[in-house]
Amino acid sequence: TGRIELRQVTKVYRRGTDQEVRALDAVDVKIDPGSSVAVTGPSGAGKSTMLHLIGAMDRPDSGEVEVDGERLELMRDRQLDDYRRRIGFVFQRFHLLPALTALDNVLAPVITDRRRAKAARARATDLLRLVGLRDRAASLPSQLSGGQMQRVAIARALIGAPRLLLADEPTGNLDSDTGKEILELLLSLCESENMTLVMVTHNDEVAAACQRTIVLRDGRITSDTRGSGG
Ligand code: ADP
Ligand code: ADP
Predict the structure, then answer these.
(1) Which of 132, 145, 156, 210 has its CA 20 to 30 A from that of 99?
(2) Alpha-carbon gap, residue 9 to 67, rounded angstroms
(3) Name one Pfam family in it (predicted).
(4) Residue 214: CB within 6 Å of ligand 1?
(5) Residues having CB within 6 Å of any atom of ligand 2
(6) Which atom of ligand 2 lies at the shortest distance from residue 173's CA?
C-alpha cells in the first residue's frame, strides 16, 4: 500500500507580519501504491514541504492530503502518531544518535515493554542484514562510512514496517558510487517490502532511476513525467 493523493494542497509560511511564502500552491497529485517518485526542482520550490505534509510532520493550510483512503488533515493527534509510525523517513545527514550502536539506532523508534524487546531486537538484526550490515550491529556511527550510516538510517526507517518511505536528499551527502548503491537499495526495498518511495533529490541520475519525476517550482508542479526507471 501507500497510495497518496494531494488535492488543492496549499501551505503558506508567514515571516513576520506582512511577508508570506506559498511553499505549496494548490498542488494536485496522485501517487500509485508501491511506486517510486522523485521530487526535484530548485531550492525553495516546496519539495521538503511536500514530504513533510505527506509524512504528517506539518499540516496544510487548505486542501486534502489522503494516504490509503485516510485524510491526514482530519486526524486527531493520536491518530497522527499512529500514522507517523507507519512512515519511514530517511534524511540527507542520516540523523543517527552518536552514542548508540547501529542496532540500537535501528531500535530507537520502537518503544516496547520487556516482553517484546527480544522480538524487536531480532527484527532490528534482520533489518541490518537486509541493508547489508550484518556484521556492524555493534558499531557506533563514528566507526561507519557515510554509506553505512545511511544503511543504518534506512534500517531504522523500516522498523515500523512502513507503507511509505519518504527520503529527503538521501544521496546528497554521499559520493556518487555510494549514492548509487543507496539508491539501488531504496528502490529494491520499495519493491520487496511493497512500499511507496517519495524522494527529494537534486541529482538528475537519481531522479531518472525512479518510475516518475515531479518537478516543483514556486510551490507548483511544472512537470510530471513517467520515466524508464524501476
Ligand atoms: P525546498 O525543499 O524545495 O528547498 P521548502 O519546502 O524547504 O523548499 O521551502 C519552500 C518555501 O517555504 C521556501 O521559500 C522556504 O524558505 C519556505 N519555508 C519552508 N519552511 C519554512 C518555515 N518553517 N518557515 C518559514 N518559511 C519556510
Ligand atoms: P539537512 O541535511 O539539510 O539538515 P535533512 O535531510 O537532514 O536536511 O533534514 C530534512 C528536514 O527534516 C529538516 O528540516 C530537519 O529539520 C528535519 N528532520 C531531520 N531529522 C528529523 C527527525 N529525526 N525527525 C523529524 N524531522 C527531522
Answers:
(1) 132
(2) 14
(3) ABC_tran
(4) no
(5) 48, 91-93, 95, 168-169
(6) 2
196 CA distance to ligand 2 centroid (A)? 20
Q: Are 21 and 73 in contact (CB under 8 A)?
A: no
CA triple 201-205-207, angle to 5 deg: 45
Could you tell me which residues come within 8 angstroms of residue 12 by beta carbon, excluding any fewer than 6 positions away? 20, 21, 22, 23, 61
List per-residue pLDDT tens for the chain, 230 residues long.
Answer: 789 999 999 999 998 888 899 999 999 999 999 999 999 999 999 999 999 999 999 999 999 999 999 999 999 999 999 999 899 999 999 999 999 999 999 999 987 777 788 899 999 999 999 999 999 999 999 999 999 999 999 999 999 999 999 999 999 999 999 999 999 999 999 999 999 999 999 999 999 999 999 999 999 999 999 976 54
CA distance 137 to 125: 7
> Which stretch of DSSP H or E encloses residue 24?
strand 19-31
CA 161–ligand 1 middle distance (angstroms) = 29
Distance 182 CA to ligand 1 centre (A): 26
Give the distance from CA 203 to its chain's centroid.
16
What ipTM is given for this predicted complex? 0.71
